[in-house]
Automatic annotation (TrEMBL):
This is diguanylate cyclase. PANTHER family: DIGUANYLATE CYCLASE DGCM-RELATED, REGULATORY COMPONENTS OF SENSORY TRANSDUCTION SYSTEM. The keyword Transferase applies. It catalyses: 2 GTP = 3',3'-c-di-GMP + 2 diphosphate. One of its GO terms (molecular function) is diguanylate cyclase activity.
Amino acid sequence: MTFSRIPDVDAEKAGMLGTAGVPINTHRALQCLRNLIDIWPDGVLVCDFESLRIDEWNSAARHLIDVQGAAIEGSRLPQWFLSSDRRALQRRILQELDKDGDTLRHNMTLHNDTPVEITLVPMRDTDAISLIVVLRDRRPYLDHLHTVKRQLAKAEELISQDALTGLLNRLGFEQAIEEFMVEAQSDKPFALMIADIDHFKDINDTYGHQLGDEALKVVAARLAEQLRDDDAVARYGGEEFCILMAVPDTQVVEIAERVRHAVAATPIGLGDGSRLTLTISIGATYYQPALSADAMFERADEALYEAKEYGRNRTVMLQPLPMSAADEEE
């Protein structure tokens, strides 16, 4: 039986309802109500409260359950849900649903993997208690939620991305080093390198900011090319770049030198046909459990300062601190 079936009503016994003096036959009113429920966008089922056997349903319920009406009639409500939800549904009805009118609402999944919000409303009749079940398809909501999450992720990516080079910006670097610090506690130590373009102010002053921007993009591209997917590289600010790499400490200087040579091997063409060779200085340090992210950055920055003091276009890596000194740094 579906909501389109209308019980027989004796016309002579039908009462008259009306507003503003307009009479309405109760049989017709009931038919209109049932038709309204049948075209309702949410699925509606009527079950016996004790046995949970389905007596009536509307078109939306049949569509959601995705079976013919004959298969629904007399079936038990729990059988149309995934096995993992059936016992939970029965338990909640028996233990939590008050026969005097409380309402339960829960997210569950139908047997055909359709996610639904199920609302359960007991309704006491003269000689029995029925259970009104409303099924709301959650797929449009979940699709919208997925879209929103994707847009938020894109927005977060843009917020943490340097507009000129496409690398992480300072915010992105700070987020990345915190993630590296967490992974380092699970026996995945890492190196932090800070690279600075040598004589960048002179490049801007001599050739203009447009060429300076080109220099930044060239260096950014060379850095990114030398790194793996799990590494992170950021333009920290101005002409300064930061690199995070989970590598053995014995390989840090070798990798830094490879990066430095890659930059030097990519000169920029000038308007007069000559070429401008770019060089970078690199300061590096390595993770120690007692060091904070800020302390690691300060040590890498100190190494970068030494690289510049020693003549630029070189790599300096500070040796690990003794444990007592590392504790003081923290």
